[in-house]
Amino acid sequence: MVFIYLAFMLLEHIQTPVVQIIEERFNEYGIELFLKREDLTDPIISGNKYRKLLYNLAAAREAGQTALLTFGGAYSNHIHATAYAGYKFGFRTIGIIRGEESLPLNPTLKDAATYGMEFYYISRTAYRDKYQPELLKEFHDRFGEFYLVPEGGSNALAVKGCAQILSEEEKNYDYYCCACGTGGTLSGIVASLNAEKEVIGFPALKNGSFLMKDIEKLLDQYSGKNYDNYSLNTDYHFGGYAKWDMQLISFINRFYQKHHISLDPVYTGKMLYGIYDLAEKGFFRQDSKILAIHTGGLQGIRGFNERFGPLIQTMQ
Q1: pLDDT digits over 2-51, tens only?
Q2: Which residue of 82, 208, 246, 291 is surrounded by the most CB atoms within 10 Å?
Q3: Burial, 255: exposed, middle or buried (Cβ in 10 Å; 0-12, 13-18, 19+)?
Q4: What is the Cβ-side half-sphere exposure of residue 125, based on CA atoms within 13 angstroms?
Q5: What sign results for the dihedral spanned by CA atoms 302, 305, 310, 311?
Q6: 123 domain residue, yes or no
Q7: Taking the complete model, does pTM exceed 0.85, yes or no?
Q8: 194 and 233 belong to one structural domain
Q9: What is the CATH number of the domain that holds 121?
Q10: In terms of domains, do 36 and 185 share one?
Q11: In a domain, 186, yes or no
Q12: Spatial contact of 241 and 179, defined as CB atoms under 8 Å apart
């Protein structure tokens, strides 16, 4: 118990660096781009996952729960992070995995299994109904008592954690950009800025505009307030979650070669690609400063390169 509360206290003091991304073209566009290196929060539970999980872990411990049950796909950053967090802080972990079991395990699930996570595979149809009472009862009957961590870790406690991503000194940019999966991180950024700055989300899912309702719900649960300073740009999903093309891969590799910062092909790579493209199109106001949030997710590069060949250059 001591360890979880020590980590809980440390969360409020963790500050990751901000680096400027220098490109000659940005001078022509009249903008400055900066990157908040949330990928450096923790070597394994990196990026937004660290922020999302820790308050949930504290709540689980406070409630006397010793098991965590959560949801994700076979390559899920959230599954990977939850498995390690459980291992690190002494929780049993259960992963409800979308789709059929495939052996051998991919690098993400292999790590999660090493950290002690138990897997339960359900059909994609059932996965869409994963929060229905009948399925939750089935999970309780099979696994016993547990603390439920939602898909992607996104709930009001996750928003609370993500609201601490920005320090007070980092709230003076003109635009804030964030990749979106389930909307928790974007909600935290929006809430922390008190509707004073413009926030742009880049959904990884096709037709990601549905996220607006989820984000509104998360913000209401967290603060009870309405915010109108954020929007979703759905032009850079590259066909949907985990979809990609060589144009995206080339961008990710060029970025790594020039700036020595890895990007993943599901979230941060698409967000940065979108920012560069919008800058070229004159979307951002002249003399504006943009802060993009690097939300981690780099563990997924191993699985990507295993499936499609060594396409992405990285230190991972």
Answers
A1: 555 555 555 556 789 999 999 999 999 999 999 999 999 988 988 899 99
A2: 82
A3: buried
A4: 0
A5: negative
A6: yes
A7: yes
A8: yes
A9: 3.40.50.1100
A10: yes
A11: yes
A12: no
Q: Please indicate, yes or no, if residue 228 is contained in any of the structural domains.
A: yes
Tell me: do 201 and 100 sit in the same domain: no
Q: Could you tell me if residue 80 is inside a domain?
A: yes
Angle between helices 211-223 and 184-192 (to 10 degrees): 50
Domain that holds residue 182: 10-43+159-297
Q: Strand 288-294 and strand 118-122: pairing?
A: unpaired
| Whether 224 and 250 share a structural domain | yes
Q: How far is CA 169 from CA 15, 166, 172, 193, 273, in A?
A: 11, 8, 7, 12, 26
Alpha helices in 48-132 (DSSP H): 48-62, 77-89, 107-114, 124-128
Q: For residues 249 and 151, is the Cβ–Cβ distance under 8 A?
A: no
CA dihedral 149, 155, 161, 163 (to 10 degrees): 160
Question: In which residue are the tokens 């001078």 written?
Answer: 27
Q: Are residues 24 and 170 in the same domain?
A: yes
Tell me: the pLDDT tens digits for 242-282? 899 999 999 999 999 999 999 999 999 999 999 999 999 99
Q: What's residue 195's pLDDT? A: 78
